[in-house]
Amino acid sequence: MAGSAHDSAIYARLFDAGEASKLFTDTAEVRAMLIVEGALAKAQGALGIIPELSAAAIHRATLEITLDPGGLGPAAAVNGVPVPGLVEAFRKEMQAPEHAQYLHWGATSQDIVDTGLMLRLRQLLGLVEGNLREVLKSLSDLAAAHADLPMAGRTYGQYATPVSFGSVVAQWGNPLLDCLDDLEGVNRSLLVSLSGAAGTGSVWGAKAPALRAALAEGLGLTDPGRSWHSDRGPLLRITGWLTAVAVALGKMGEDLILMAQSGVGEVRLGQAGGSSTMPQKQNPVQPSVLVAVARQVIGLNATLQGAGLARQERDGAAWFTEWLTVPQLCLSAATAAEVAKALAPGLTPQPVAMRAAFDQSQGLMQAEALSFHLSAHMPRPEAQAAVKKLCRQVIAEGGDLGTAARADFPGIDLSPVFDGTAQLGEAPAFARKFAVRVRNA
């Protein structure tokens, strides 16, 4: 098995991160770092920190020169960071030492690596947002169409009270809408990093704030107005958002696995997997991917939280931990959004199976409603005791709660209790409210 499923010829299509896969390659990292170096030189030239002619030459060269990532490996192994090797290789390829000497003027490796990562994370967030909007469109259509379709609500895996399929879909979608609402703030965490060796920007003197602001403007990133070399909060806010997305989609996956299982069959998946030996199998592959990547993202996010305890002005071990975890977390979160986009349009509820759950529950899903209905005719404690007795009787002797209740209370009209559609409460309204919220998002 490959070191990462996303890099595997066998598993990459199962855990398909889509276009996001292109953002986490050595080539993409080198290109992002060169973009940062070019933008830095351009900003420094405009502010008179380096000669403007050299700045223009460097900026142009960063757009034209291609570096082999493999050539940076030996230096990275020694230095613990790829930037010294990148600067050396670029100066050699530029073949203009009079200009190349001004490359990377006053910057430190972390400035280049972190800013380059932010450029790629900006693209990633855009890709995930686009996929989430498509998922939400499919879920909103499903919720609106089936807002009034009764199905068994379950708590602790047991029959509880009736819900509607549309309200269940809304429960999947509302956390995703919350994520979209939070995205504007998350995007503000896409920060430029430019602080120099120990985060003080001392090499640039009084021009340091203006240089950082100019670099941020040139790259379309946010100027933090400070150093964040050892403050990993900006990165953690982004990965935390991606984790929230993966968790929300993982919950949908968990529910779908249960709803599609043999003996339940309350939903049909548009696509299912087969078995190598059992021809009848219709395996819920896509929901299982959602659950698996959510679990992975949760674990990786916990590791990143630990790496947030960065020591002093820069912590190499904490930084290395990010390199080991951030790409996998990002690709797995992107996988969740890609898979959900493909999964959601094919979901089809199965009303017959949903109705069968009411029959199989022996009417016990209406026990709460029955106790409240009887409370209009007797004290509440007596009503509760009577219903508990009837439930024990039905469980022990068979039959159904409706028949037993009508036998014990022949003078009370119980039809409002045992009409499944009458016990949905706000479920249909929740489903329709979700659909409207998606339309307005």
UniProtKB/TrEMBL annotation:
Superkingdom, natural source: Bacteria
CDD domains: pCLME (cd01597)
Domain Adenylosuccinate lyase C-terminal, first and last residues per copy: 362-435
Single GO MF descriptor: lyase activity
Regions that span the bilayer: none
Family designation: Belongs to the class-II fumarase/aspartase family.
Name the record gives this protein: 3-carboxy-cis,cis-muconate cycloisomerase
Organism of provenance: Primorskyibacter flagellatus
Originating gene: pcaB
